[in-house]
Amino acid sequence: MEADTGHSPDSTGVWPPVSLLELMAVMLKVGATGFGMGMVGVLQQEVVTRRSWMSQEELADGIALANLLPGPIAVDAAVFVGYKLRGWSGATLCLLALLLPAFTIMLGLTIAYLRYGQVPQLHGVFRGLNAAVVALVLSVAYRIGKSSLKSAAQATLALLALAAAALHANLVVLVVACGLLGALFLRPKPKTVTP
Amino acid sequence: MNLVRLVLVFAKIGAVVFGGGFVMIPFIQREVVQHYGWLTQQQFVDAIALGQITPGPILISATFIGYKVQGVTGAAVATLSVFLPSFLMTAVATGQMLRLRRDPRVAGFIRGVLPAVVAMLLMAAVTIARSTLWFDWRLLLLACAALILLVRFKVDAVYVVIGAGAAGFFLEH
Question: Quick check: B59 and A129 CB within 8 A?
């Protein structure tokens, strides 16, 4: 089945199709060299700047879509690229290729950790890492909070959610309930929606 | 049996991690540490740190947890399960993109979810700090320094994690 790639032909009328092998090579590179959100930058560099597989605007659309969906933004954006270029097989390949480097390295680190993590010399290292993880979680809360708590209604929702989480509410129910409240009461005004 | 549980737990988490991989932290803490006891709080925090110094998404910490539960098979199963929901949604949504992006209900849903995400992350930070840093003023100072580097100076998270590990090593020696 041919997927609608959304590619517009250039002046000569033809876009060279992206081979699955090329797609895989690029995603392996993105997965091996990008850290966290940094992957979005590498993805953009490879797909738009270096290979012109799609325009900056098209990729930006994909990133915007990734923001609306669960999952890491870079992974969703990579799946978007794969689907746009080669349909379901491209999307699947992109996901697997993107994850393979991280999976392999993480597996190695896990095995090493479980074998040597109790070595007393490393105790201090892990204590230091604890501090970093607390800081990281707070920094992500800050970043998301700064961009999303823009109205009194959203701030109230955050406080209510905090109280619910502190009272051990089911977190999945909490997220879905807040989303439904948002869908009912926090819709953007039609004119502020970007086409 | 454990594999089935891994699939269910991680697919559920994968379906609700709006706002990026870090959002998994409160869910994993609740389900994997407190409910199933698949790993200790300390191992959980270390798994996140290892996920951060590994290239790729932070959600790859699922590999650690899966391995702990069921070896390499468990690692693969947990990793695929946690990415499956967003993979399916993204591929399907790519075809429907314009409609989705214009739908004010979708935008409203996300506007409602993100405050909850902020609240859950704050709770998770408090829980982790209470179990690992409490009453150790040097570690609390280290966490504050790391936070300032991340937020104020926008230092890359990888360097902050590596630096904090090194600082911890020297604090103990």
Answer: no
Residue of A nearest to B20 (CA): A72
CA of B11 vs chain A CAs: smallest distance (Å): 11
pLDDT grade, residue B64 (50/70/90)?
Answer: very high
Q: Kindly determine whether residue A140 and residue B95, on different chains, have CB atoms separated by under 8 Å.
A: no
Say if residues A36 and B58 touch (Cβ distance below 8 Å): yes
Distance from C-alpha of A143 to C-alpha of B121, rounded to nearest angstrom: 11
The pLDDT of A56-71, averaged and rounded, is 85
Q: Mean pLDDT, to the nearest integer, of B131-145?
A: 88
User: CA nearest A136 in B: which residue?
Assistant: B147
Contact between chains at A130 and B55 (C-beta distance less than 8 A): no
ipTM score assigned to the predicted complex: 0.86
Do A124 and B171 form a contact (C-beta atoms < 8 A)? yes
Helices (H), B29-103: 41-53, 61-95, 97-102
* pLDDT higher than threshold 60 for residue B20: yes
- Model pTM? 0.83
Phi–psi pair at A5, nearest 5 degrees: -80, -15
Nearest CA distance, A10 vs chain B (angstrom): 22
Q: Is the pLDDT of residue A7 over 60?
A: no
- What does residue A84 show for φ and ψ, rounded to 5 degrees? -60, -40
Q: Which residues pair with A35 in a beta bridge?
A: B56
Q: Could you give the CA distance from residue A174 to residue A163 in angstroms, rounded to a whole number?
A: 11
Q: Nearest CA to CA, how far is B153 from chain A (Å)?
A: 12
Sequence letter at residue A194 = T
